[in-house]
Design brief:
alpha+beta; ABC transporter substrate-binding protein; seven-stranded mixed β-sheet; Dipeptide-binding Protein, domain 1; Peptide/Ni-bd; D-Maltodextrin-Binding Protein, domain 2; Dipeptide-binding Protein, domain 3; peptide transmembrane transporter activity; 15 helices; TAT_signal
């Protein structure tokens, strides 16, 4: 029988009594059986989009997998502090220059050293705008890397950048020689603790621990990331023992999962904010009155209570959670005020004779209760005369239209977080030249850009507060609430769910195999 407590465990409130009607059988003791070997099966809600770690920012799928295959200079530990990876130490030697000393043992799977030349080449690849990499816009201040010696490298920024170190925790390094002959979008050869042994686009991913890994060997030898888009199937897989780990679960499934003694359920706050992004570049959402109207039209409190079990509170008009450095306490959320919503819509020219018609795109099964939240939002919008049609699509299709085709619908359900836990990192997704933004606002962009290089902390916080208030006033999103952090795992597995969504098998071990 599992212990009632574990390190970092947060007790689950008795108020979460929402019934689940999912199919599935009770726990079968699979955890105890599986603990005799060293494999683990992790359920993912979405398929991996690409194997190129510089061309994705999807933490829950792509980067969680690729962080096991590649090394970065530094890593973010489970407690969210920064620690060493390929670099053993680092210092800011000048306001705009960071120096990193590399682990002399660090090497790729083919034996190629991970040295200063590798870092220089990767920074050149990242900063070359012609490569069109999605990570590039998140390193706007990074100018170049300079080799000091074989195992020392400097990163030079355009002015001071307090967020750079955190951002480097998810800049994964490729082998230059290998990349010349291979497509990193479809193949891998990394320097991390695991190697991919089986992968097909849209399908499961198989990993195996490297025998020759230069760092600390993981306890888990074999990993399967099983693509399981349906929440019902993920829960059923946990209950049957087919899945060992699932993060990002729906609060409505808590009671069902907690009754199974073969499972351990964890709940924590997350760093991920849920909202409905509004396409301000075309269509009705170009009008700020319409954007404000949809914010007034939706009762976030009732949705959080009915669909998320009261595990989260509505956002105070913020793009960030309070975990981020630079978070402002000065903004206030849009209260539920359907009459105000109708007034604003009328001012914008919409009413019974000319109803506002919009499309709301949702990636099916990707986000916690996302499909149900979208339905609740459209129902409440209908009460103020807005006719919203839900377009539910697979996550790969969603990302293709959103980022590659730059063809987002009027409204789009999304959750976003940023591994640096700095306001500038997440705000960078909303600056005018970001492919993620669908919003061009000079005042917001100027505040974020100036804050990035501001060395005085009070001035920096003031600039971020200005950015937060500008975003609240201009409403490029329908503000909702933080995404609840609920995860479950086989009771025999020693694993602490992270508040930043990363799921890393190197942080797991089977009890009794230590």
């Amino acid at each position: 029988m599992r212990s009632p407590t574990r390190r970092g465990f947060l007790g689950l409130g008795a108020g979460l009594a929402l019934a689940a009607t999912l199919s599935g059988c009770v726990g079968t003791g699979t955890a105890a059986t599986r603990a005799t070997d060293s494999s683990v099966v992790i359920g993912l809600s979405a398929a991996v989009n690409t194997l190129d770690p510089m061309n994705t920012t999807s933490v829950g799928s792509d980067l969680s997998v690729l962080s096991s295959v590649y090394s970065s200079l530094v890593t973010r530990r489970p407690d969210l502090t920064i620690g060493p990876d390929a670099a053993t130490s680092w210092d800011r030697v000048e306001p705009d220059r960071w120096r990193f000393r590399l682990n002399e043992k660090a090497a790729f799977a083919d034996g190629t050293p991970l040295d200063a030349d590798v870092v220089v080449w990767n920074v050149e690849r990242l900063t070359d705008q012609d490569n069109g990499l999605r990570m590039t816009s998140n390193f706007a201040s990074l100018l170049r890397a300079e080799k000091v010696d074989d195992h020392t490298v400097d990163l030079v920024t355009d002015g001071p950048d307090a967020d750079l170190l955190g951002a480097l925790s998810f800049l994964y390094l490729l082998s230059p020689d290998w990349t010349e002959d291979h497509d990193p979008a479809t193949a891998t050869m990394g320097s991390g603790p695991y190697e991919i042994t089986d992968y097909a686009a849209g399908g499961n991913v198989e990993l195996r621990a490297r025998d020759d890994y230069w760092g600390t060997a993981p306890d888990i030898d074999r990993v399967t990331y099983r693509i399981t888009p349906s929440e019902a199937a993920r829960v059923s897989g946990l209950l049957s023992g087919e899945l060992d780990v699932v993060a990002g679960l729906d609060p409505q499934d808590l009671e069902r999962l907690r009754t199974d003694r073969a499972l351990e359920v964890q709940q924590s706050d997350t760093t991920r904010m849920a909202f409905i992004k509004l396409n301000t570049l075309k269509g009705p959402m170009k009008d700020v009155r319409v954007r404000r109207a949809v914010n007034y039209a939706v009762d976030k409190e009732s949705i959080a209570t009915s669909l998320l079990g009261g595990t989260v509170a509505p956002s105070p008009g913020q793009l960030l959670t309070s975990d981020y450095a630079g978070y402002s306490d000065d903004t206030s959320g849009y209260p539920y005020d359907p009459e105000k919503a109708e007034e604003l819509l009328a001012e914008a020219g919409y009413g019974s004779g000319n109803p506002l018609r919009v499309e709301l795109t949702v990636p099916s099964g990707q986000y916690v209760a996302g499909d149900l939240i979208a339905q609740a939002v459209t129902q409440q919008l209908s009460e103020v005369g807005v006719r919203a049609r839900i377009n539910s699509v697979p996550f790969t299709v969603y990302m293709q239209k959103y980022l590659v085709d730059q063809d987002m619908s009027d409204m789009q359900y999304i959750t976003q977080a940023w591994p640096t836990l700095a306001a500038g990192g997440l705000y960078n997704l909303f600056v005018s030249d970001s492919p993620y933004a669908y919003w061009k606002d000079a005042e917001f962009t100027d505040a974020v850009t100036r804050a990035r290089t501001e060395t005085d902390q009070d001035e920096r916080d003031a600039l971020y507060a200005d950015a937060a208030e500008r975003a609240r006033a201009q409403a490029p999103v329908l503000f909702l609430f933080p995404q609840p952090g609920i995860a479950a795992s086989s009771d025999g597995l020693d694993w602490q769910a992270r508040p930043d969504d990363w799921v890393r098998p190197a942080e797991m071990s089977w009890k009794g195999n230590d």
